[in-house]
Design a protein that fits this description.
The protein has 308 residues and is of the alpha/beta class. Helix content is 41%, strand content 17%. Helix 1 links the parallel strand 1 (2-6) and strand 2.
Length: 308
């Protein structure tokens, strides 16, 4: 298959592109961050600029499109809601229209943050109630995609993994600080169901191969606090978990609101894909193995010098 991945320098986009390139022809779209390497074809484009989406689709001629590009920094979204609206709410509809018109299958990446976190174990039938600019614009993006291209996959996710900058996931936050011996906070009142980006990529590819469509929750089968997640990272790498101080989100200086419990029910995915998603223990093992194999360094080598 010919696969077009937007946001190919991001946490999910890059890991997904590398996974997909093992058996497919991949075109990865990047904007401000250039990439080098031969694993997949890199297309530089500002997808908000007139004619750029059409140019990218013409170059890639995709069978499948996976739209990962987004403004995912919650604090930046709070400070720049107009940009968040363009990237998270409007761009998905434009990608969906191009996918529909060219006959490409589409998987659109959304977020667990569309929920307010008051109950947890959210199913696809639960009503969203976003608390932040990021979450509200991502929800608009979901609904726009459904309106434009009902046969698309809408994937609500939460993920961790190794990134090209080494600073884009919560796992890297804990790894970097604990390795350096720095004390950090770990929220005991914020819960989630994260999935390793590499494994999430493989799940998305399987969903497209199975011709699934509609709304799906994709995450680990486990639910834990961000403090406990940090402790597990410490244990896996042999770091001192006492450096992680149990704390409340209210003690932080973060601008954007966080939903307290964003655990996801993945039963619909398991039923329709006929395969289970990994548990967190397996994913942390994989995360550690990638580190041992030099995977973070491999990602950094794809970065054009001076780009970040």
């Amino acid at each position: 298959m010919r696969i077009l991945v937007t946001g190919a320098s991001g946490l999910l986009g890059l890991n997904l592109s590398l996974e997909a390139a093992k058996g497919h022809t991949v075109f990865g779209v990047v904007n401000t961050h250039s990439l080098k390497g031969k694993a997949f074809t890199v297309l530089q484009a500002n997808l908000l600029a007139p004619g750029e989406i059409e140019r990218v689709f013409e170059a890639a001629q995709p069978d499948w499109v996976i739209h990962c590009a987004a403004l995912a920094n919650l604090e930046v979204c709070e400070r720049n809601p107009a940009l968040a609206q363009k990237l998270n709410a409007e761009l998905p509809g434009m990608i969906a229209e191009a996918s529909r018109e060219t006959g490409a299958r589409l998987a659109h990446i959304s977020t667990d943050a569309v929920f307010d976190g008051q109950k947890g174990n959210y199913t696809e039938m639960d009503e969203p109630n976003p608390l932040s600019i990021y979450a509200s614009t991502k929800l608009i993006g979901e609904r726009t995609v459904v309106d434009v291209y009902p046969q698309a996959i809408i994937a609500r996710v939460n993920l961790f993994g190794w990134s090209i900058s080494g600073k884009r996931s919560l796992a890297e936050f804990f790894f970097n600080n604990l390795q350096a011996g720095n004390s950090v906070m770990g929220f005991t009142d914020v819960f989630f169901s994260p999935l390793l980006a590499n494994d999430l990529g493989r799940v998305l590819l399987s969903m497209l191969a199975e011709n699934l469509h509609g709304l799906y929750h994709i995450g680990s089968r486990d639910n834990l606090s961000k403090y406990d997640f940090g402790v597990k990272i410490a244990g896996k790498f042999g770091f001192d978990s006492a450096l992680i101080h149990p704390s409340s989100f209210a003690d932080s200086n973060l601008e954007a609101s966080r939903s307290p419990n964003l655990s996801l029910c993945v039963e619909k995915l398991i039923l329709n894909l006929r395969a289970s998603t990994p548990n967190l223990s397996t994913d942390l093992d994989h995360f550690y193995e990638l580190y041992q194999q030099g995977y973070p360094q491999k990602l950094k080598q794809m970065l054009v010098v001076g780009d970040l």
